[in-house]
Every structure is written in C-alpha cells, then in structure tokens.
Design goal:
single chain; 401 residues; alpha+beta; OB fold (Dihydrolipoamide Acetyltransferase, E2P); Dihydrolipoamide Transferase; Chloramphenicol Acetyltransferase; 4-stranded antiparallel beta sheet; 25% strand
Length: 401
Amino acid sequence: MSIEIKIPPLPESVADATIVTWHKQPGESVAQDENLVDIETDKVVLEVPSPQAGVLKRISEDAGATVVAGQVIGVLDEGAAANEAPPAEDTPAAKAAPSMSPAVRKLVEENDLDPASIPPSGKNGRLLKEDVLDYLKQAKATDAPAPASAPPKSETVKPAARPAATAGERSEKRVTMTRLRKRVAERLIEAQQTAAMLTTFNEVNMAPVMALRKQYKEHFEKQHGVRLGFMSFFLKASAEALRRFPEVNASIDGDDIVYHGYFDIGVAVSSPRGLVVPILRDADQLSFAEIEKGIADFGQRAKEGKLEMEELTGGTFTISNGGVFGSLLSTPILNPPQSGILGMHKIEERPVVENGEIVIRPMMYLALSYDHRLIDGSSAVRFLVTIKEMLEDPARMLLEV
C-alpha cells in the first residue's frame, strides 16, 4: 500500500518551510520513524520521520523546494522490500550509517566522509560532532608526511619556490541565504525601523562574582552535575531588575502597552546555522543550577539542530554574551517585540579608582539597548545600575534588596 509523505503541521507563526536534505532515495528501504528528510523553517531544522516501514517509492519535492504544512513531498510503499542485491557470501555486509543531527550530517558531507566508518559515541549509537572531529584529527595525523632527514652540513637547502598565482584569479562563491539568516536580517531591520532604539552603558566589577564562583564551583558541580558559570548570575540579576522596572519587561502592541507578569528570558547561543535565542521560561523562579542546566542543554541542542520551535518563540527580554567571542563593547539590537536586551562583554583587568586609590579589577562593560518609545532614559539607567549593584554584591540576589 502506498502512503503519502506529508509536511507536518507548522507553528502558526511559520507560513512555509524549505526542504534541506533527503536522507533516502527512491528504491531504498526505510524503517518506521526513521528520519526521511530535513526541512528548515525560519528558526529550526525539523526532521520528518517515516510513518511506516517500507521503501521510498517517489520524491515529489527536491532539496531547496519551498513547502507548506500538509503538502505531499513523496510516496512510500508500506512493507515493500528494497530492490537491492544481497551481499555475496564472502563479502561482509555494508555497515549501516549511524543516526546523526543535521549539523553533524553537514560536517560529514563537507569533508566527504563515510559516516559508517566513524565510531559513534552518542546515545543509541548516535554520531556526535566530537566523533567526526576526532576522526578528522586522527586521519590528518595518519596522512602527515614523515619528517625529512637533515641534509649534510656541506649542502645548502634552498627554500621551495612559491607557486605563482594564476593571473587574474579573483574567486567568488555564491550560496543561497538560509531561511534563518533571512529571518534574522528581516528582524534586525524591523527593529531598527520600528523602534526608537537607544543604548546605555555601565561597567561592573566582576571580582565578587568570580570569588564566589571560585569558592563554590567544585561543590556546585558535584552537587548539581553542571558547571557554575556567569550567565546564571546575570539571569538572576536581570529577573530582579525586570521585576523592579516592569516597563523593560513590557512590549508595544499597536496603541497598547502589554505588561508581562512573567519573566521569560532569551539567551542568545551560537549554532552552525547562526545565532538563535532559546527561552528560559519563568526565569525568576529557577535556581542557579536549573538556569545553568537549561543553558547547557540549549547550547548542546543548538549545535545539533535539535531545538524545538516553542523553545524559540516568545520571550520578554534577551541577554546576549559577546564576551565569549572577545567583544569588549557593543550595542545589541532589540529582538522585537521585546523592549530591552542586555549585552555582556569580555572581562578584562583594568585600573579603577576605589577609595581614592588606583587598583586593578576584573571589569566588564554592560550595554542595555531599549525602546525609547516605552522606556525612559532614567528607567533604563537605573535598570542597568540595579544589575550592576547585584553583581557587585551577589547577596542582594538572595535577599532581594
């Protein structure tokens, strides 16, 4: 019996999707729930599993095609056997390729590798990015040429002639912009065209947080199974500052101001497809350990392309950490319809004046970009000062003072 392969339902905010990769070709067998094809929306890559076991009969829409929910993209023959010759008795059967995320599959294809030859270390035999990188590292070490023997002292070694560049060679490469990159571009332009965006700056002495982290990081990791980072301190401080300044946690909807009675904070993380912002719901109610676990989980699944659509939707405030890339100062752009975004930066030892004396302290510049239509400058400055005060005296976050 033939079964139609359809695009699954898409979220209300997503009108269509793009087919990225077919993992089976017509005539190949497929198991039930095995991933048939990857489709890309504005935010995430989704996998379309096979509804039944059988053989892929026909592909109706190739990679690169734009599709909508419910659209038929292929046909499956349920229960049919693949039209393949069995291996000879003296020839070992081909090893099945392990399951992998879209990001890992892209890495494999870019390096022209056979995934079946790479030992997987993930759960249920899943191939991880680290497995591919280790395989490439070992292959590079194996293929490295042996060092040449030293020439006799009487001989003079001339440097190898540098190959001449081809005259007039000015290479270019043109690639189609991904849906995620298109959507990011649209939202950034939207933010600059629709909001009265302004940025205020301050700096924070990170010594108290660093000392607290150093004192408890081993016990924290042993107790909770996750490292104690800086982001949990910033989320806690931001949640309290948002509670004190509700206009920063609000958004504009037409002629109305929507004050959100909850604190869903987005944390910008890097992925192979670009920057994504998964949301920590009710961040004010989360413990330090729950925040760190949530961020670590988001980071890992962003690399594997496994973030869910609902995890990237909504949010009342965003935190972006350019410091992990070495940024000393920047002006983050709003994530509409949010009215505020906090930018963290690189921690750098600088001379500062304390009690009339010049001392060296680990300092970080903070930036708050905000929509001036809704947030007055005084509120923005006091909001950022509140975060500064809590980080320089972490006990305030526990006492809420």
